[in-house]
Amino acid sequence: MQSQKHKARKDGRIRASKFIGYDKDGKEKRKYVYAHSEKELEKKMLDLNVNIVTGEFIEDDKITLGQWANLWYNNYIDGKGYKTAAMYKTAIDNHIIPEIGHMRLKDIKPMNLQGLLNRKGKEGLTRTQEIIRLTLKQMMDLAIENDYLVKNPAKKLKVTEFEKEVREPLTDTEMEIVEKANLTLKQKAFVYIGLYAGPRCGEILALTKNDIKGGVIKIRKTTVFKGNKTELQNWPKSAAGNRDIEIVDKLKTVLDEYVKTVKGIYLFQGEKKEGLMTQAAYRCMWDSIWKKCNRAAGGSSEVIAFRKITSHFLRHTFATMLYYAGVDMLQAQYLLGHESPDITMKIYTHLDKKKSAPTQKINLYLSSINYHGVKSGSEHFC
To answer: Which has the least CB within 10 A, 16, 220, 284, 348?
Structure first.
């Protein structure tokens, strides 16, 4: 039951206010705080008092979009995954603040934000558009939570549709080329782990000899490149990233042989033979792998006979193998470490469309029934 201490508004929220000074005309100014319960309102008022005392409080009619963007990032985003935080930081520093960061937050209208996105679209930055929209939407949602806004002006923004790059798995011919390429044992182990177990690149580079036990590869951590520094990150205990992948026969022979040659802790160490592989060392290794595959395909430094691929193609090829091997989607989701089944479903749905068109399926079904409409091999009951 709603406390009567504060009267509920039409939208169900209750409100409190605090005197914060006078305007240029001598009129009293108050900061209004909204909440859905007395407990929440009390906490918000306490936070407001703390911000005023520490000098962190910015009046609603003065805070700019740029100021709020930095407050939002520092309080809600900084400290999250490196790549995620970097994505938001780039959107804020390179696009949002330079173009509309000077505007007062309370004055921002949907057309201001849409104009920003439209300009990026005309520059051909379609993916950047999507990232900016995502950033603005989340920023404005938290501005409402913090009582700087009542409505989210980024709620219905439109972006230019763009086609994502379609990663085609390695073909049978390309798989044969990879196998016959003159790869070092280290290079072959990296490629085979990706092809026949499917970890992400960062997960492979984080593997230690202790992670290869009992016929399984234990995925518990990943690496993140920060410039040319490499950091190790543990997957949270509840994360889908934690998984055990059984080692198939094709991988076992190569992996067993390679592990015997590793002297340090990590399977894929850097140039100094200790510690994690740096981004520069990884790029050098992958470039060498591709060049050797290209030569095995009949190419040269001047002739490309083997398409340019990244290590992620190995993982995508593994996902394709799971589908054609009849591994159900939930098992595939676990093995691939997908947090959401939607990601796995997109891969399986795409492959299902390629595997057999509806007409082919119908013809196959019709060919299995006789002219009485009874499926071949089945009994007919009246």
So the answer is: 284
What pTM was computed for the model? 0.65
Q: Containing domain of residue 289, as a range?
A: 172-355
DSSP assignment of 136-151 equals HHHHHHHHHHTTS-SS
Are 83 and 40 found together in one domain?
no
Instruction: Please check whether residue 372 lies inside any domain of the structure.
Output: no
Q: Are residues 183 and 221 in the same domain?
A: yes
Q: How far is CA 377 from CA 5, 361, 369, 380, in A?
A: 77, 19, 9, 10
Pairing verdict, β 212-213 and 216-219: antiparallel
Which band of pLDDT confidence, cut at 50, 70 and 90, is reported for residue 206? very high
CATH number at residue 104: 1.10.150.130
Q: Are 86 and 78 in contact (CB under 8 A)?
A: no
- Closest to 226 (Cα-Cα) out of 62, 61, 83, 27: 83
In the predicted model, is pLDDT for residue 336 greater than 60? yes
Q: How far is CA 372 from the centre of its chain?
A: 53
As a whole number of angstroms, the distance between CA 291 and CA 284 comes to 11
Is the pLDDT higher at 3 or at 104? Answer: 104
Contact 247, 197 (CB under 8 A): yes
How many domains are there within the chain?
3
What's the DSSP call for residue 208?
Answer: B
Q: Are 182 and 302 in contact (CB under 8 A)?
A: no
Residues 70 and 44 placed together within one structural domain of the fold = no
What pLDDT is attached to residue 231? 86
The mean pLDDT value for 254-261 works out to: 95
Backbone angles phi, psi at 308, to 5 degrees: -70, 120
CA–CA gap between residue 196 and residue 222 (Å, rounded): 18
Helices 110-122 and 126-145: angle between axes, nearest 10 degrees = 160
Q: What is the mean pLDDT of residues 214-222?
A: 94
Q: What are the φ/ψ torsions at residue 151 (nearest 5 degrees)? A: -125, 155
Q: Round to whole Å and give the CA distance between 61 and 13.
A: 22
Question: Rounded mean pLDDT of 257-279?
Answer: 86
Tell me the residue ranges of DSSP E strands in the chain. Answer: 14-22, 28-35, 212-213, 216-219, 221-226, 229-234, 243-246
CA 116 → CA 87, 100, 161, distances in Å? 17, 8, 16
CB-based contact 316:309 (threshold 8 Å): no
